[in-house]
Specification:
The protein has 400 residues and is α/β, with parallel strands linked by helices. The chain has 2 domains: 298 residues, Divalent-metal-dependent TIM barrel enzymes (TIM Barrel, Alpha-Beta Barrel); 92 residues, no CATH class. It has an 8-stranded parallel barrel, surrounded by 4 helices. It has a 4-stranded antiparallel β-sheet with strand order 5-6-11-10. α12 runs parallel beside α13 and α13 packs across α14. It is globular.
């Protein structure tokens, strides 16, 4: 019943299309990572990737992501030309019959983790977000001016202790992981070729000093007002990805973090094409995000699913757990997903199968001898995909 997909990063991905086919996925989630943000994706480049995928016996199901340029988020003078390019790319994707498109509206930083090799008791490794450590990076390594005012005082004190115990090598590794390693392979704003990455990162953050959540939300509304009619015309489903993690960092505004945020986005430009990537791992760190209830409420607008689990600790910290292991009730979430798919099928919707991918995975077994992208190991995701498929089939059988 699940439309099983797998994120593939193209030619630079150590996980091959042949391996992906063997793990049981049928659909590919990818992007034209070689094209700079803001430029048009032309039909020949789209078709080249699509043909490669189809020659491997797979289908290109989801674009993740068609990046939204910082100029659009900041409403700079070139915003309209950047949006025009974006609309052309949407039309070209539709012409190639690739019609589910993920994007995000996170300023500067796409996602954040402080430890990419957090060891679990069974010897597997995962990724960890420790809030005091991240604040230590912000205040004492990046040294962002007046950063203390953006965080609770008691966590700033914890961050001060973390920073005092950190060696210079540890500090540089932390900065590299946050600014480059977790960002560079997914359309990050700074890559390993940047000469002074911390200064460049601070400069990007500084561009948002006059943009609060209200202004960023209005910039998103403007963007949606231009692209959603085009998506609707082409039969494309746009699905915004939540903020990861779902609370403010680095003094930057975050506007896709709660149920009320998702409600605002859907209402801003009402259309079946204005939808959501429902990511349990991104929304899950907030205990006030009641995930099964959110799937029930927003189900008709959920065009893509990222299923991932996590275990929370104090002060907003969390680590990524096995797909069926953490604090997120994956069985109840899957029950709501199956119910939504049954509802769609009864309505006669052609998109009744929602694409789902195992989002991230533990590093296990042969993953330790590979050099896969952070969060995207082969064996760990294969295990996650098998667990999710088994869960879905069991729930569907019980419901029938």
């Amino acid at each position: 019943m699940l439309l099983k997909t797998w994120r593939w990063f193209g030619a630079k991905d150590n996980v091959t299309l042949n391996e992906i086919r063997q793990v049981g996925a049928t659909g590919i989630v990818t992007a034209l990572h070689h094209i700079p943000n803001g430029e048009v994706w032309n039909i020949s480049e789209i078709q080249k990737v699509k043909t490669e995928i189809e020659n491997s016996g797979l289908t290109w199901e989801v674009v993740e992501s068609l990046p939204v340029s910082e100029g659009i988020k900041q409403a700079t003078s070139d915003r309209d030309s950047l949006i025009a390019n974006y609309c052309t790319s949407l039309r070209n994707l539709a012409a190639c019959n690739v019609k589910t498109v993920v994007y995000n509206f996170m300023p500067v930083l796409d996602w954040a983790r402080t430890d990419l090799e957090y060891k679990l008791p069974d010897g597997s490794e995962t990724m960890y977000f420790d809030f005091p450590t991240f604040i230590a990076f912000d205040l004492y390594i990046l040294k962002r001016p007046d950063g203390e005012k953006d965080y609770p005082a008691h966590i700033v004190e914890l961050a001060k202790v973390v920073a005092s115990k950190m060696t210079s090598d540890e500090a540089e590794k932390l900065a590299y992981n946050i600014i480059i390693k977790t960002q560079g392979f997914i359309d990050g704003t700074i890559d390993g070729n940047t000469v002074h990455p911390k200064q460049a990162f601070l400069s990007l953050i500084d561009k948002y000093k006059s943009i609060d959540e209200t202004q960023l939300r209005e910039n998103l509304r403007y963007f949606l007002s231009k692209i959603v009619p085009v998506a609707e015309e082409c039969g494309v489903k746009m699905c915004i990805h939540p903020d990861d993690p779902p609370f403010p960092l680095l003094g930057l505004p975050r506007i896709v973090k709660t149920a009320s945020d998702l409600r605002w986005i859907i209402d801003a430009v009402p259309s079946p094409s204005n939808g959501i990537t429902f990511c349990t791992g991104s929304l899950g760190p907030r205990t006030d995000n009641l995930l099964p209830e959110m799937i029930s409420e927003f189900g008709s607008h959920i065009h893509f699913l990222h299923l991932r689990n996590l275990t929370r600790s104090a002060n907003g910290s969390f680590y990524e757990a096995g797909h069926l292991d953490g604090e997120i009730n994956m069985a109840e979430i899957m029950k709501q997903v199956v119910k939504e798919q049954i509802r769609r099928r009864k309505e006669g919707r052609s998109d009744w199968q929602i694409p789902v991918r195992p989002d991230h995975g533990l590093k296990i077994l042969s993953d330790f001898s590979r050099n896969d992208n952070p969060g995207y190991p082969l064996s760990g995701r294969m295990k996650g995909l098998a667990q999710l498929e088994g869960l879905a089939k069991g729930i569907a059988a019980m419901m029938e």
